[in-house]
Amino acid sequence: MNNEDRDLLVRWAAGFFDGEGSVFIRVERRRKPSWQPTTRLVVSVGNTDPRPVERFSALFGGVVRTCIHASGGRRVLFVWSISGKTAYWMCKEVQPFVVNKAEQVACGIAFYEKPWRRNRRTGSEVASDLMLADEVKRLKNVTYETHPAAARALIRRSVHGAYQSEKEAR
């Protein structure tokens, strides 16, 4: 694949990721209280159609697994995920093109670029990692109160739906 093809695919991936993807910092608590929790950057995309998910795997590496859709239905959900350095490089590649997840991607990049990423961390460094993990969680909980554009879109959809219902009743 030449550079122009890859650039086009990365742009497509950024758009798809913006809608269907997820960035999070996994925090794993250790069994012994004296052990520090471990943190890891993870990026994933889930969809009921395997083709775009497999395209992510071909473009960025990683694995595709299947699970039953969380909505309680019987549809199979295909989930692609990567973590660590691979997730960091994927975030760096899509960062210029994401819109909705721009802050989450920026947090993931900032998390991975910490100077202590490769060394044993101190208590304050662990606290900094946990704060970034909490920030990503906070960014995922966008509500209509905190995001006026989402509220306007919801109102447009409901008004349009009411108009369509009224039109069908005539």
Question: How is this structure best described in words?
Answer:
The chain has 170 residues and is α+β, with helices and mostly antiparallel strands. The protein has a single domain (3-142), classed as Homing endonucleases (Endonuclease I-creI). Helix content is 53%, strand content 19%. It contains 6 helices and 4 strands. It has helices spanning 3-20, 50-60, 85-94, 102-112, 123-140, 148-169; strands spanning 21-28, 38-47, 63-68, 76-83. The protein has a 4-stranded antiparallel sheet with strand order 1-2-4-3. A hairpin with a 7-residue loop joins strand 3 and strand 4 (76-83). Helix 3 (85-94) packs across helix 4 and helix 4 packs antiparallel against helix 5 (123-140). The longest helix has 22 residues, at 148-169. The chain is globular. The protein starts with a helix and ends with a helix. The model is unreliable at 157-167 (pLDDT under 50).
Short description:
This protein has 170 residues and is α+β, with helices and mostly antiparallel strands.
